[in-house]
Amino acid sequence: MAKPLTVLGIETSCDETGAAVVRGDRTILAERLLTQLDEHAPYGGVVPEIAARAHLSHLDGLIKSAMTAAGIGFGELDAIAATGGPGLIGGVMVGVTTAKAIAAVHDLPFLAVNHLEGHALSVRLVDAETAFPYLLLLVSGGHCQLLAVEGVGRYRRLGGTLDDAVGESFDKVAKMLGLGYPGGPALERAARDGDPARFGLPRPMAGRPGCDFSFSGLKTAVRQAAEGLPAGDFKAGDLADLAASFQAAVVDVLADRSAAAMDTFKRTDGGVPAFVVAGGVAANKAVRARLETLAGENGFRFVAPPTALCTDNAAMIAWAGIERLALGLTDPLDFKPRPRWPLDELAHA
Ligand code: KG4
Ligand code: ZN
Question: Which CATH number among 3.30.365.10, 3.30.420.40, 3.40.50.2000, 3.40.50.1100 corresponds to the domain 6-121+309-326?
């Protein structure tokens, strides 16, 4: 049997600096992830220049540490993969330049991985059963899309957000409610003891034809609900109820739009299709639970990567690199980092 491919993956597209060594037999040999939370927290969000500088300061050390933990030298790798976009350009440049330098010095193939493809394929790192095609709900800080994943590099977009991404709306609502940064996990915690039925918030796009999303009206509705509460007398219970009501509206919308996508998604081979949820918002327990029920009701097998693989990480980049390398899809060393890089464009490449 052929030796499994081993790839070093690098992630620097937002506020996590990551390096991971992953093998084609689905073994994560080593993984290092450094979050820049403390650097960005005083600003209430990610500051691109601070992020780029922090990636530059930490990436080399994280790569060294991951390689040591994996117990291999660069010469034993089959390729170097880095997020080539989309993302904050300064950070992407740091990761891409580092990966190119290692690839050039050690005469290894370089792979520029679309960050969204990293999320889209991450499920296959942990679940060998998830075969193409599968239906994917990709919900992160910058994206909210429903896709038919037909193969590596082959994505058919069924729907997407017309305005805010769902993670972005969690972050904005959390900020509005004074829950701090990062917003998603804080909002989920705040919602835990709240009454999801107290505020009658809208479910934008629910029941509409197609599979598109919209979240900006929901955010405005939360603001109006908050303003309707007695000023200066905002109780912890109000906050929990508002957070729970918002989360329930998001869950309803995600379920409604996913159900519409399930209706249009058909497997030609008659197999049981998989419904996969990935990206940072897939870490949310209420979202996962509802989508799991929905998948069961619609004859889909529900698969979600463990939460550590849902939020940004380098193992998913290494894995997407392995999948691309296996197909010979390497990139030239003059690849230019891409701040914008729609996933369905890969299908036309
Ligand atoms: O995939 P990701 O780590 O980074 C991007 O590629 O954007 O996703 C980050 C997003 C943020 O908006 C964050 O608030 C959201 O995922 N998120 C959550 C939770 N954990 C992270 N949203 C809701 N509930 C969570 N538990
Ligand atoms: Zn991401």
Answer: 3.30.420.40
